[in-house]
Amino acid sequence: MSEVWQNQSALPGASATGFARVDEIGLRGAIVLRGDLSSSAVKNVATGIGGVDMPGTLGINLVEERAVAWMSPDELLLMMPYAEVDVALGQIHKTLEGQHYLAQNVSDTRAGFLVSGARAREVLAKLTPADVSPDAFPKGVVRRSKLGQVPAAFWLNDEGDIEVICFRSVAQYVFDLLANAAKAGSEVGYFSIPD
Amino acid sequence: MSTRLATGGRLIDHAAPMTFTFNGKEMQGYAGDTLASALLANDRMLVGRSFKYHRPRGIMASGAEEPNALVGLGRDGQFEPNQRATTTELFDGLESTSQNHWPSLDHDIGAVNQYLGRVLPAGFYYKMFLYPRAFWKHVYEPFIRHSAGLGKAPQDRDADSYEHFHVHVDVLVIGGGIAGLQAACAAGRTGAKVLLIEQTAHWGGRAPVDGGVVDGISVDAFTQNLIAELDAMENVTMRLRTMGAGVYDHGYVLGYERRTDHAPDMGGPRHRLWRIRAARTITATGAIERPLSFSGNDIPGVMLASAVRDYAVNFGVAVGDRTLVVTNNDDGYRTAIALKNLGLDVPAVIDARPAGGGALAQEAASLGIRIETGKAVAKALGGKRITGAAVCAQAGTGSVDEEIECDCIAMSGGWSPVVHLWSHCGGKLIWDADHAFFRPDPARPPLGAEGQGVVMAAGSANGALDLAIALADADYAGRKAAEATGYRPKRGRPPEAEQAGEAPILPVWQMPEGADQTLRAKTWLDFQNDVKVTDVQLAAREGFESVEHTKRYTTLGMATDQGKLSNINGLAVLSEALGQAIPATGTTTFRPPYTPISMGAIAGEARGDLFQPLRRTPMHEWHEANGAEWEPVGQWRRPYCYIQGDETPADAVTREVTAVRQSLGLLDASTLGKIIVKGPDAGQFLDMMYTNMMSNLGIGKCRYGLMCNENGFLIDDGVVARIDADTWLCHTTTGGADHIHAHMEEWLQTEWWDWQVYTANVTEQWAQIAVVGPNARNLLEKFTDDDLSAEAFPFMTWKDVTLNSVRARVFRISFSGELSYEVATPAGMGRAVWNELLAGAEEFGATTYGTEALHVLRAEKGFIMIGDETDGTVTPQDLCLNWAVSKKKHDFIGKRGQQRSHLCDPKRWRLVGLQTLDGSVLPDGAYAATQARNANGQRKTIGRVTSTYYSPTLKRGIAMGLVENGPQRMGEVIDFPMLDGTVQQVRIVDPVQYDKAGEKQNV
User: Fold this and answer.
1) What molecular functions are annotated in GO for this chain (chain B) (predicted)?
2) For residue A2, is pLDDT > 70?
């Protein structure tokens, strides 16, 4: 019993290619932080851990593996490398001690997928009622909506590079949804493709 | 004879012939044909039989309004019934079959029904099938089932795929005729995001067929310019073969794209359902020509005048060699002129108007066409196709002046704007007496959330039949819609069309005006459902005054075409019979979809593996590979039991229960809900949520809690753990995780918004493994140096334990009555921990166990299960859980409800154990009854079974149930009548049938 027990993401290595690619992201650290988003302590600790500016309503700011996403008027999702979560949580508890807040490690709660390709938006538009057109869904916006019949959130890492997160238990369903929607031959040709 | 002309046909490609079959017979058509035009080109006039009388039916129209030409398309997994030939694009290899006949289309036995017409009057179904009563089951119902429906239901699984697509636009324009194109252009020029959809495969609608001059160029050229301009606009999307199917609240519109119906080899989804959110919608859906009501107007070869024109101009098909035109308005002359110009014979135009027509009539006259004004068709002649028409005065009763030989009758009874989409979401109509049609009332449009009109009608859909007026109207609608969504239209003049001087229409609802009963009884209103003028008149005589009632009584407009041709004519006849004006009668309700859409499109991707989300725990694959018999629990699949070798599920459950009681069992408990509740007011909040106290729970301790709704009924239960000074972890049932979290948030957000409490649903963060049985501690101790002794880690506490470097949160709680730990690790580690614990458990003869063993174990201990012992009407007191209902707390959710008289009634059924005298297993849901009878003569029930199992531990059936005065009747024997008439005698016992003292779990 000395060997290290291996941690696994929901669908390690899952990948599908159609008119867009769908790839599972693998393990990533995530912390749900609820609190008064206008308080400077909350802002400081969130931006400190995320390494980015505080996002506004429906906003997400990213840099490499780190991000701070606005999830609701009193909730943020902080993302970081998986191994750094404990340190980050400790930092939050230390900084916000005595204040009313909630911080929980939710790194294993979700599965993540990357939908990439010039027509990546179309894959999402087949599955979500949210407006994913370039003007309504530019880089820096996070939408919590649904894909098919389950809740999901998504944002742009870059044009043609959409990240999707969903609950871990429905990872297979969401992967299948995305792969099915991205099947070659089912392109819609609706959104204009940037040059 | 219906034939293909040597030249012409603007939509077909003479260089691309195609082969198709109709009822197995091979025929030729061209690329660009519809199935209808190709059938006509092959002289196939008779294409189906009507529903009731099995009358011969020919193609009547050229578009979505077609009532008759319904066929079955394709075969096997691609078979689809009731497809309109007029909207089916031809492709090479298309297979079609006609419907509703036996043994063949040409010789149909069912046609005898038409001679029974006198005994099959309106309301026949209602009158006939009432008596004698015994006939219903054995005669009428089988007969109706046999004859119901036109097409055959597909037998095979649908081989195609379907999908949805969500778009958000400023302006949606439905209809790609000239008005839709102009409206889209006007809106698009402002920069608004525009989506333009057209149900057919072509832009331009009727305009290129009907002709005209706009801005000095032909309307065809003008249309091409509009298309080119729209095509070049980045902010405009144009989709052909996409029908506006329905308009709903909040600007939600469904578009139905038939992607591959015309090209089955193309691949990709067959249909795509566009789910459109539009700030403004413009319905430029055109107008539909009305038939004229004369005797024999259903004989194949009688066709809408516009359709005859369409087939000639668009497809190069002459429906007849000699086409008689019958009209009450100027538009009919267009057909006469078009046919004459193609060199076809038009023996006469019968114009019901005494004064005749305007400029078009003059043009027809100048072409040498005979025009008879003030005349009518008394009767169309022929059987399976038209041979001629008897002509009479419109004003008379139908004495025949002459018979005119012809093989086609082109009829025009005027036009009705397609107001369906306008009406779907509440747009109102007004009766336009000048033009004899209902049109959208601009003052009463469908309203959006802000109370403003969100739909505008444009062009002929708005009643603007004249090209010049339609273009101006559409231009206005496009600009207005864009303006309403925040864009600024530039100034500019709308395109100008030359107006032809038209003579007014004469409303003609019966031809001739004084037609006698014999003529009226052969005058069809609804061609698909066989509703005649006499049927509607009879309904009126029998007291059906409401148009909605008449519709259902006569079945007028209830067929698959939903009365697109019959509605207005029918309600005009009804109005006349009732002696009231048409607007006083009103219309029936227009409901989506505009024409039927496929079930596949509605389902979208949700079929097969994607039909429903399946929730999987981190150990799901292991279960699957190890004989799991699945049980659906919400959207999760949980192992019911694990089958080994030749075991039956019952064998497996027995083995699993025994292993747990004797040594060790492992259960995947990951699906249990886990909600973190944190904050200075969290204790107070949980005291409100649960019936018992949670605020005073010590840190590191666990407590079982009950949750009720406001009525006092149990909704959930579970173990609560105090994590730290202001943090609690609430376990819920598997099915309760989401709704209990929502329940908490609702109270926090709406009632106690000033309380400092945050919640987080962390159900999926954790994999949870129950390690259960006398060897549970021994197993865990193999993986940790932490002290798990009874003293260091007592019952109903929790502890952070390091299991081989993995940090786990271990709860010492028991749902089985055995020594038991629930081990929670991060979900990603779940599978590894499961594997390692299993490997370590081998030496104890351990087994994994499923939900059924879990149920048996808890039932042996008398533990309740939400959903078994509760059904939404059961209180904690009913379950003798008074100990878990605080008497000290001044309030909790459900407290007040539980004080109501009925909930305090001492006679409420309460929980007891039930033991059959013969040791057998009681059926689930069985009722206990006394000999007393209630007012209905039924035996009075006094209790029911809520849980029942075979107990491998006690080697007999065990059960729990709710019984009137149950706890006071320990030892009594009561009767459970069985379905087979026998009676099970059952003794009332303590629900706890195993280890009453709880010694096993507390070691």
Assistant:
1) sarcosine oxidase activity
2) no
